[in-house]
Write a structure and sequence with these properties.
This is Tat pathway signal sequence domain protein. The protein has 22 helices and 36 strands. The protein is of the alpha+beta class and 910 residues long. It has a 20-stranded antiparallel sheet that branches. A five-stranded antiparallel sheet has the order 4-3-7-1-28, with no helix packed on it. Strands 2-6-5 form a three-stranded antiparallel sheet.
Length: 910
C-alpha cells in the first residue's frame, strides 16, 4: 500500500499554480532523471497587513470573535505583537496567542480575539509589530478554592469547582439574572416499554481549569459526569467562553456516550438554569424564535385581546416588552379583574424533525396544555424575564439536530426554570441499538461474504456506539430588560450563525499553509472556468441534497450519503456500507480546500458541520477503540472496520487553525498516542493468511491509511507544541526516515513498527499497493512534510509512489520489481502525478496528469453535469437527482481538480 531547479518558497506557493519549474525548462521539455532536491521553504517577509472580513458580512450584534491567521516560515517570532483596526481606522482591542509554529520555531499560526463591544465594521486590518489598544473593560478571572469568578465588564459569572451547578450565578449590575446552571440527563433502561419511567441524573463536577484568562477572552474548562444514586454516566467536557464587554456566556458542551446502546438509553439531555422572576406578572415576558426572524411574543399575564380594553398604550407597551404604567391608570374594568386573567407559566417548543416544530403552553403543572402555534424550523432561541432583566438562551443547529426542545417552567412563580434540550424528552429514548441481528455472520469468511453483497463489514459486538461523542454550542445572555423584537431576532440569528472573522484566500495560499495544494479560484481561461463550474455544480448538488433528502438529526447532521440507488431514486441509506459516508475518500478535505481557495461562507458552514460530525460521531473517544474511526455504514458506528483513516487529524486541522477551536484541538490531541490502538485491534485481521499477534516492537502498520493518520496527529502536535512536542516529533521523523530506507519506500505497503522508537524495521523490496492508501489525507500530509523538513530519501520515496501509481505496469515493474496490479481511482491519483511533475520539473508528467484527470475514470466531459427533476409518485418528496454522482468520485474529483489547478494549472491550456 499503501531534478527541479531550486525555487523560492513564495514562487512555489503562488504557482504551484503557475508551475515555474516548467518555465525553467527550455521548451518545456521533461527534466533529466536526476534526484529531486528537497524544497526548503525560504524565509520571506510577512505581509505588513492582512485584510479580514466577516464570513457572512457584518453582523447585527457583537458577541466577540476568535479566528486564526497563518504566517510565512521564518517571518515572525512566536511572541510577535499585533494590532487591529476597523475599516474607518479606529483601533480595536485584540488578544493574540500562538497556535502553531514552524519547525524553526517561528510563528506559523496566530489566534486572535476581539471584544463583544468592539466596533462592528465590514472589514478590519491586522498588522504585526504594532501596539495594541486596551479593552475598555478587560475580562478578569479571580480564582478561589470554591469557585472562579469571571467579570466581563457587563456581567459577573460564578463558576463552581464542585457540586452540580456549573454556574451558580450570573449577575448584571448587581441583579441576579440566572442561577444554578447545570446539566441534566434522563436515563431509561427499557426503550419499547411506554410505562418505563426515566431516571433524572445531573452534572457532577470533577475538575475545573482556567485555560485562558483575558484580557479580551477567557476560557474555563469543566469536566465531569452525570450522576445519581451511584450511577455515573455520560462524561462531559464543557467550555465556557467570556469576552470583554459581553453580556453573554458561550458554552461548548461535549458528552461521550459510555453505554453500548442496548441496555440503557438517553431519554433526555439538556442544560437547565433558574431565572429569578421579580416583576409583576403582566411585566413578565416569554419569547421563542420560529422560522427566520419569526418570534412568539407573549406575557405571562397577557392584557391584550381581553373583553375589556386596558388602553392602546398599555397594550402596545406589553407587546414591546416595556414596563407597563401603574394599573391604577388603566381602564378600571381591567384593573379590578387582573387576578382573573390566567397566568401562563409553562411553555414548550418541540422540534422533532427538520420539517416541523410545535409550541404549547399551560398555566401550571396538573392542568392541560394549549397549542400556541407551529412552524417548520425554529431558530433555537428563547427569552424569559421581565422589565428588570431576564435570560436569553439558544442552541446552535437547533432544527438541524432534532429532536430538540426548549422548556420554560414556573414563569408565574418566584423562579422560572429554563431547559435547553439537546435531546427532547418528548421524542422518546435515543435508539443507538444495532439495526440487525447479524444474520448468521459468525465467522470471518461469512462476514466477508456479507461485505460482497451489502458492502458492510459486519462483526459481532463491533457495531457499538460506546465511546462516540457529540458537541453542541449554546449561548446564554444576561439581559438588563426584555429587548425589542428586532434585537431578539438579531440574537436568534447570532445563535443560528455565529459571526466569524476570516482571512482572504490570497493570504491563506501565499502563507504556505497546508502544503501549497490550493490556489485562489481562477476563471481566467475557458478550460479553468469549466472545471470551476463543475466544482460549483458538485458542491451545490450536495448542499441541495442535504436539504431535499433531509440529512439532519442529532447523530446524522454534518454527514452526507455515500452512493445513490438509481432504481428507488434515493441514496442507499439502508444498504450496508453504501449509506452514511463517514469521511470515505476525504470529502472533508475536498470541502475545506474548496473553502480555502474561495472564501465562500456556504462551503465553510458545510465543512464546519461535517468536521463537528466526523470528528465526534464517527470516532471513538473512550474504550479499547479510542482513537479509531468507523468505516461508512447504515449507522455511523455500525461497521467493524475501526481505522485511523477515519479518525485522522488531517480532517480536523484546517478548521482548528482557522478558528482556534479548543474542542477540535482536543480531538487531534487524543490521537497523538493512537499508535497504541494497533495493539488492541488488527485492521487486517479478517484477511491475513499468516498468524499474527500484535507486538509493540513489531506492529504491522500500513504505510498508507494507517501511517498517514498517525503522521497527521504527530505533525499537528508538533506544530501546536513546537519545541515541546517531544515524542510526537520524534516518532514522525523516525517513521519518515525509516520509510525512506525501505528499498521500495511507500510501494512496500506496510512495515513493522516499534511503538517505543517510532521506527519501522528494515524491509525487503516488495510491492503491495492499494488504491485506497493515499486517499485519506496522505497526499496532503506528505506535501506538508516535504515542505517542512528535509529527511533524506523521504521525498524520493513519496515521489516514486506519485510517479508510478498511474504509470504503466511495465514502468512499475522495471523500477520496483513487480507491477502494482489492476488499480482504480486514477482520476483521484492524477494529483499525485501532478505533484511529482512540479517537484521533478517534468512536463511529460504534467501532461500525463491532465490526461489522467480528464480521460480515465471518475467524472469526465461525458458525464451529464446536470440534474433530473423527480416528483411524486416516483419519489416521496420532489428532488433534483444526479444518479451518476457518488461521494467517492465527488471527493476525489474535487481534490484532484483543486490540486491540479494549483500545481499544473498552466499546463491545462485554454
Amino acid at each position: 500500500m499503501p531534478e527541479m531547479p531550486h525555487v523560492s518558497r513564495r514562487t512555489f506557493v503562488r504557482g504551484v499554480a503557475a508551475s515555474p519549474a516548467f518555465a525553467m525548462l527550455p521548451g518545456g521539455a521533461p527534466a533529466a532523471a536526476a534526484p529531486s532536491v528537497p524544497l526548503k521553504l525560504a524565509t520571506v517577509p510577512a505581509p505588513d497587513r492582512v485584510a479580514l472580513r466577516w464570513l457572512e458580512g457584518k453582523p447585527t450584534s457583537g458577541i466577540g470573535n476568535t479566528w486564526g491567521v497563518p504566517w510565512p516560515k521564518g517571518a515572525l517570532a512566536p511572541t510577535e505583537s499585533f494590532a487591529l483596526t476597523a475599516a474607518d481606522g479606529a483601533a480595536v482591542p485584540v488578544q493574540t496567542w500562538p497556535i502553531a509554529y514552524w519547525p524553526d520555531g517561528t510563528l506559523k499560526w496566530s489566534a486572535h480575539a476581539i471584544p463583544a463591544d468592539a466596533p462592528l465594521a465590514e472589514t478590519y486590518t491586522l498588522t504585526h509589530g504594532g501596539s495594541n489598544t486596551a479593552a475598555a473593560a478587560p475580562v478578569t478571572v479571580v480564582e478561589r478554592r470554591e469557585r472562579i469568578t469571571v467579570d466581563t465588564g457587563v456581567i459577573e459569572v460564578a463558576v463552581e469547582r464542585r457540586g452540580s451547578a456549573l454556574i451558580s450565578s450570573i449577575t448584571r449590575g448587581g441583579t441576579e439574572i440566572a442561577r444554578n446552571l447545570r446539566l441534566i440527563s434522563l436515563r431509561q433502561t427499557k426503550i419499547e416499554d411506554l410505562r418505563s419511567s426515566a431516571e433524572p441524573l445531573t452534572s457532577t463536577i470533577k475538575s475545573v481549569k482556567v485555560e485562558q484568562r483575558g484580557p479580551v477572552r477567557a476560557v474555563i474548562r469543566i469536566d465531569g459526569t452525570h450522576q445519581r444514586r451511584g450511577r455515573s454516566w455520560l462524561p462531559f467536557t464543557v467550555r465556557l467562553y467570556f469576552y470583554s464587554g459581553a453580556e453573554h456566556v458561550r458554552m461548548m458542551h461535549t458528552f461521550i456516550l459510555d453505554t453500548d446502546g442496548s441496555s440503557e438509553f438517553i431519554a433526555g439531555l439538556g442544560v437547565r438554569a433558574g431565572v429569578p422572576m421579580r416583576d409583576a406578572l403582566y411585566d413578565r415576558h416569554v419569547r421563542l424564535s420560529g422560522d427566520g426572524d419569526g418570534l412568539l411574543r407573549e406575557a405571562v399575564r397577557g392584557i391584550t385581546g381581553l373583553r375589556r380594553d386596558p388602553g392602546a398604550t398599555v397594550r402596545a407597551a406589553q407587546i414591546a416588552g416595556e414596563k407597563l404604567a401603574d394599573p391604577a391608570t388603566w381602564d378600571q374594568r381591567v384593573t379590578t379583574r387582573l387576578e382573573l386573567i390566567p397566568a401562563w407559566g409553562d411553555y414548550t417548543l418541540s422540534q422533532h424533525s427538520s420539517e416541523g416544530f410545535t409550541i404549547k403552553k399551560r398555566t401550571k403543572p396538573g392542568y392541560g396544555w394549549v397549542g400556541a402555534d407551529s412552524g417548520q424550523r425554529a431558530g433555537g432561541f428563547g427569552y424569559v424575564g421581565g422589565v428588570t432583566g431576564g435570560l436569553g438562551f439558544g442552541m446552535r443547529d437547533f432544527w438541524q439536530r432534532h429532536p430538540s426542545q426548549l422548556d420554560l417552567r414556573g414563569a408565574a412563580g418566584d423562579e422560572a426554570e429554563v431547559t435547553v434540550w439537546m435531546w427532547s424528552p418528548e421524542a422518546g429514548p435515543m435508539d443507538t441499538r444495532f439495526y440487525h441481528d447479524g444474520m448468521g455472520q459468525d465467522t470471518y469468511a461469512e462476514q466477508l461474504q456479507g461485505l460482497e453483497i451489502t458492502y458492510e463489514d459486519y462483526e459481532p459486538e463491533f457495531g457499538t456506539p460506546y465511546g462516540i461523542a457529540r458537541t453542541t454550542e449554546l449561548t446564554f445572555w444576561a439581559l438588563a430588560a426584555t429587548p425589542p423584537a428586532a434585537t431578539l431576532a438579531a440574537l436568534a440569528r447570532t445563535v443560528a450563525t455565529p459571526p466569524q472573522l476570516v482571512a482572504p484566500p490570497e493570504h491563506l495560499a501565499s502563507s504556505g499553509a497546508f502544503g501549497g495544494l490550493f490556489a485562489p479560484v481562477d476563471r481566467s481561461t475557458p478550460a479553468r472556468a469549466k472545471i470551476e463550474d463543475r466544482l460549483d455544480f458538485l458542491f451545490k448538488y450536495y448542499r441541495d441534497q442535504r436539504e431535499q433528502r433531509h440529512w439532519y438529526g442529532f447523530w446524522n447532521y454534518g454527514d452526507v450519503m455515500h452512493t445513490p440507488d438509481v432504481d428507488r431514486h434515493v441514496w442507499r441509506y439502508d444498504v450496508g456500507g453504501y449509506a452514511w459516508d463517514n469521511s470515505e475518500l476525504s470529502p472533508d478535505l475536498w470541502l475545506w480546500l474548496a473553502y480555502l481557495r474561495s472564501g465562500r461562507a456556504d462551503i465553510f458552514r458545510f465543512a464546519e458541520a461535517m468536521t463537528r460530525h466526523t470528528g465526534e460521531v464517527d470516532v471513538y473517544h473512550l474504550g479499547k477503540w479510542a482513537g479509531l474511526g468507523t468505516r461508512h455504514g447504515v449507522l455511523h458506528w455500525a461497521d467493524s472496520a475501526k481505522q485511523q483513516r477515519i479518525s485522522t487529524a488531517a480532517y480536523r486541522r484546517i478548521y482548528y487553525f482557522l478558528t482556534a477551536d479548543e474542542r477540535c484541538g482536543d480531538l487531534m490531541r487524543e490521537l497523538v498516542d493512537s499508535d497504541r490502538t494497533f495493539l488492541a485491534l488488527d485492521p487486517l485481521r479478517k484477511i491475513r493468511t499468516e498468524p499474527y499477534t500484535p507486538d509493540p516492537h513489531a506492529l504491522s502498520i500500513g504505510l498508507g491509511t494507517d501511517w498517514s493518520g498517525l503522521a497527521a496527529a504527530w505533525l499537528t502536535e508538533w506544530e501546536r507544541q513546537g519545541p515541546k512536542a517531544g515524542l510526537a516529533q520524534q516518532k514522525l521523523l523516525a517513521t519518515m526516515r525509516t520509510i525512506a530506507r525501505m528499498p521500495n519506500g511507500f510501494v512496500t505497503g506496510s512495515g513493522l513498527y516499534d511503538i517505543d522508537t517510532g521506527e519501522f524495521a528494515e524491509a525487503a523490496k516488495t510491492v503491495s499497493v492499494s488504491h485506497l492508501s493515499a486517499m485519506f489525507g496522505q497526499v496532503e500530509i506528505c506535501a506538508e512534510l516535504i515542505g517542512l523538513v528535509d529527511v533524506p530519501g523521504f521525498e524520493q520515496a513519496w515521489l516514486q509512489y506519485c510517479r508510478l501509481f498511474n504509470a504503466t505496469k511495465a514502468e512499475q515493474a522495471a523500477e520496483c520489481g513487480a507491477n502494482f496490479g489492476n488499480l482504480i481511482l486514477k482520476q483521484g491519483h492524477s494529483r499525485l502525478t501532478a505533484y511529482a511533475a512540479v517537484r521533478l520539473g517534468d512536463a511529460a508528467l504534467a501532461a500525463r496528469a491532465w490526461q489522467e484527470f480528464t480521460g480515465t475514470d471518475g467524472y469526465t466531459d461525458a458525464s451529464p453535469w446536470q440534474t433530473t427533476r423527480r416528483e411524486g409518485p416516483e419519489v416521496l418528496n420532489p428532488v433534483d437527482e444526479a444518479s451518476w454522482v457518488d461521494t467517492n468520485t465527488t471527493a476525489l474529483y474535487g481534490l484532484a481538480a483543486i490540486q491540479n489547478l494549483a500545481l499544473i494549472g498552466d499546463r491545462l491550456g485554454s
